[in-house]
Amino acid sequence: MSTMNTVGRPTTPNKVESKPATLTGGRGLLQDEHLIFESDGWGKTGVDLPEPKGNGADLGELVRKDPIGLPGLSEPEAMRHYVRLSQKNHAIDLAIYPLGSCTMKHNPRLNEKMARLPGFSDIHPLQPQSTVQGALELMDQLAHWLKTLTGMPAVALSPKAGAHGELCGLMAIRAAHRAAGQGLRSENPRNKVLVPTSAHGTNPATAAFVGYTVVEVAQTDDGRVDVADLAAKLGPDVAAIMVTNPNTCGLFERDILEISRLTHEAGAYFYCDGANFNAIVGRVRPGDLGVDAMHINLHKTFSTPHGGGGPGAGPVVLSEALAPFAPAPWVVSGEGGFKLVEFAEGQAEQAFGRLCAFQGQMGMYVRALSYMMSHGSDGLRQVAEDAVLNANYIKARLQDLMSPAFPEGPCMHEALFDDEWLKGTEVTTLDFAKAMIDEGFHPMTMYFPLVVHGAMLIEPTETESKQELDRFIAAMRALAEAAKAGDVDRFKGAPFHAPLKRLDETRAARQPVLRWTAPEGSNIAAE
Amino acid sequence: MRFTKDHEWVRLEGDVATVGISKHAAEALGDVVFVETPEAGKSVSQGDSFAVVESVKAASDVYAPVSGEVVEGNAALASAPETVNADPEGEGWFAKIKVSDASQVDALMDRAAYDAFLATL
Amino acid sequence: MRYLPLTPDDRSAMLAATGAKSIDDLFVDVPQAARREGFVDLPRVAGELEVERTLGAMAAKNTAAGSVPFFCGAGAYRHHVPATVDHVIQRSEFLTSYTPYQPEIAQGTLQYLYEFQTQVANLTGMPVANASLYDGSTAMAEGVLMATRVTRRNKAVISGGVHPHYVAATETVVHAVGVETEVLAAAVDAEADVIGQIGPDTACVVVQTPNVFGTATDVTKIAEAAHAAGALLIVVVTEAVSMGLLKSPGEMGADIVAAEGQSIGNALNFGGPYVGLFACREKLIRQMPGRLCGETVDADGARGFVLTLSTREQHIRRDKATSNICTNSGLCTLAFTIHMSLLGETGLRKLALLNHETALATRDALAAIPGVEVLTPRFFNEFAVRLPTNATQVVDALAAKGVLAGVPYGRLAPAAGMDDILLVAATETTTEAHIAALKTALAEVL
Question: Which of A364, B54, C97, C307 reaches 20 to 30 Å from C333, CA-CA?
Fold first, then answer.
């Protein structure tokens, strides 16, 4: 005798008008998660280790006695903790991440696989060089790709981030001037660096750090460097100019050849901030523009992951004039294979020493080379074209509702709007950005560059499909129309649908709380 | 009360000038979170940066509107920087300076001139 | 091309919307002389299979540390990283997210940074830590700069026990701003010389413990001497696991701790990316470089975290910033904090003891070889030996036998005249068989 399931149940939804709040604060898939310090795991550990034989008695009073204050989690608890945290982050893998100047392109997973090959990840920087020839070969290959793409004869690979690369480039320039008798402490010092008003903060910060006085160069009404102002400020006391091209307004500097000619005539060097290289890679070579030094953000143009803030990598391509002033170490290839040169003998006067321990961000070199090889020279040229096309498409589809900062002519890989179009609505750039969060999008870069009021800088990159761009444009248009129609609360209180609402940053700065502290009277170590 | 083009104000009493930033400047900065005031005894020249005021997203140098010697920096701002927002032209003063040349104050804008200046920005 | 979603039809439609006739119209601002037709002289697009083959071939030419007896340290240490760590850092929301400038949609990143800061502060025994710098060597440089700002003095006294790469990286940067460095002679017990060099013009004293020769030192007296002279003590630590067994820098009186966090959560990676740990005393907070994460509340009163005290940084202060730093170590920082959460204090102490005991066993094995002199009396997991001949030659000979025996000090500092000194490290990944292989091979070569 067989039994069947004879009891059915409802299979169409009930219609219920009310929307009750939850009883415990949970919200469907989204979980709240306490700090690891609040889960009472002071004695726990999620790592199985053999028992040590002793207790370090041979080290006497050097042994740490008091509790350290580090809670532990079993593996299941750890997975839950970090997966719950991850759910509160926006990411490129979720939607277009249109941060201007950041180049939030897709991060190919092949790069992750290659970086994790034991032959790359499990090698020590100071192993005998004969045992790491493949690693040196990779660095040599990466250098070759970077030099060829930029049309420059030399590259310093070791800087650990873009700003670190700026430091490298300016220090090479400083060393070059000193070698020519025009150092900062000489009789005819070149002690000024010219920086456009639209520059990223790292530019003047780096120049000032290296000992230069920063002199600002004006911008024309169409968003470019004012060449007349530049020419007036160039002189025998100028060490270098620092220009971003395409610039931070997303525009190609049309007069770039004139700018570099004037700079060189004045005996100064041309440092180029390469943050926006994605717009021109494969189509234009900075070497052809007269650049002397340019850092390349591997985590921008060459897709190494942004990882919530790092790690970066900022190799610097160098002209013939500056090549002798690159820091150690570097890779040379010869009959005996590849050699890592760690000390600049012979060039001891010229090179300015190492910038960091070991040889730089190898893990990022592997990822970047994997990306470059995957695209090839034809793919990379297409990258620049699609990046520029995507940005212009967004500009074209939004410019009737929002005000482009520089409406005349095409933009490059990013479209810049000001807040002129919001005048009279009570909605600010900040409010608009927070409302984008409710619609499911990470906001564009806001209030940068400083030269444009209420700036909104949108960089889609080439890895966005037309469908995703249209989805984004539709949301932006709907929001723009809502702002103009006076739907102010939507913006002022946004975001309403994110894991948290707007945060009190004033409080965080006035009363800084930078760590969890054990409650009074507990015996857990903490200051 | 007199004002500078960099939005500082000065109130001279005898030969001591009390100095701060104007309401316009305080509003432009947003919520003030930190103020670096000068130490007593420091000498300043007109136009030198002598203090720094910070909000969450901005930092601004404050320039000495007059030359002289700092008599007192406003220590209360260390624990209550929000005073600069609440009362920028009163309790939110930054420093008191013993002036070396009182005529420097006369040359600055009065309230009407400063308001007119603000309208041009 | 697999990473480019636009189709030819998409491109035509989009070009039409922009009003441009061709893609070249959008590049109209590029000067004629700089325009390049055709493709740069590099290989064309390659599929995954081809890229894997090419890069795989390069990787195969390298000797992976885990495939042989391995004893290299000198600032980078091979530890076992639990499988969870690498899995979690590859989650989309961590791998492909940006710096948490929009905190409402970045609480994942911000909360782990807050937890990281607390772990680093507690590990180093200091009140507060930042959200990481690039690595230990640049953290040391930043520490020296910070000390000169705080003390308004211009000289750094650097112990001869500090890693030579760290000294070089620091000097590159601090000399650029006119800070003087006095680097004391390299010696296994270099810390003994430091106090005598502190003067009224000293901004900071920099000491590494365990030092590059492995010597573990109680630097409390150095801290007292520095403070008496109005100087700061900077303690450098290149092996973070050591703080699981040894007295913390904070307990010994450090004002600034500049450490390398690679040992926890991060692979050797041929030198990078690594993670700089930076901690300091409470009153120095506003002079700290790098990102800082702080606690606050949102509009509904719910607890949340934000980047804070940003006015120290370059994007606001520009030419008046404390440093030009923009990035931190992101994923490496996350890897550190996950591994540390899995270990917990219990696991960390055990791990540290295992490291120490394995190194003791290695020391005993080498001390038994005629001609090998162990130089370091008290160490954590690394020690120095003097060989009867050039250490680089010995290391190369051992490499040919399939043993990676350690790092010759001469590789770090060829001009120091210490070419017969070898730095030997052992961790929980070192086995008895490895130690036996090292002993046998070394005895053969000498």
Answer: B54
